[in-house]
Amino acid sequence: MSRNITTLLKLVADGSSLRILNCVAKSYEAGEVNGISVPISRTSLTRRQYYRRLSVLTKMGLIARNNQGK
């Protein structure tokens, strides 16, 4: 249990992951496709950084993918 909490805190403390979560929140507030679309260009991350962070966020349950892969 404490390992999951530690991993979660490290993930949220990571600036790159926080940028992705921030972009999701902003797009949701702006009504852009219900917050499900976050282009890589908005995060200023490389493709590798973006997809690695996205994978970890998904595994931790902070974000979810729908059937269309968004």
**Count of distinct strands:** 0
Secondary-structure-derived class: mainly alpha
How many helices?
Answer: 4
Could you state the order of secondary-structure elements as H and E?
A: HHHH
> So what's the overall shape?
globular
The major β-sheet equals:
none
Can you give the helix content as a percent range? 55-70%
Instruction: Give unreliable regions as ranges.
Output: none
Mean pLDDT: 76
End-to-end gap? 29 Å
Strand content: under 5%
State Rg: 12 Å
Q: Can you describe what's shown?
A:
With 70 residues, this protein is mainly alpha-helical. The protein has helices at residues 2-13, 15-29, 40-43, 47-59. The radius of gyration is 12 Å and the shape is globular. The model has no long low-confidence stretch (mean pLDDT 76).
Write the layout of secondary structure elements.
Blueprint: H1 2-13, H2 15-29, H3 40-43, H4 47-59
Q: Which descriptors would you attach to this protein?
A:
mainly alpha, 70 residues
Q: Could you provide a short overview of the structure?
A:
This protein has 70 residues and is mainly alpha-helical.
